[in-house]
Amino acid sequence: MEKISIKCPCCHASITVDSKSGAIISYEEREKKLSSFEDLKSDLDKKKELREQLFAQEQQTQKDRKRILEEKFQEAVKKADTESDEPFKNPLDYD
Length: 95
Hints:
This protein is an alpha+beta fold. 48% of the residues lie in helices and 16% in strands. The protein has 1 helix and 3 strands. The chain has one helix at 37-82, and strands at 3-7, 14-18, 24-28. It has a 3-stranded antiparallel beta sheet with strand order 1-2-3, with no helix packed on it. The longest helix is centred in the middle third of the chain and has 46 residues, at 37-82.
């Protein structure tokens, strides 16, 4: 029986597959390294800071979005006021 060993690029697990049937013969996960409490706390602090930055950035984007939409609306109103009152003539109606 010929076996094929595959290493997952994502989780680094080892998978052994039978080449004839395609059945998984064995699966071994990579050993996870245990971190210290301080390392875990610093990781959580970094993630919290990142979330706060993203939230502040999104708030600023929403403020700018409201202003930009208002400006676009005012431009559209000005454009509609300056256009002539002639009805639209379809080019295909000139036949």
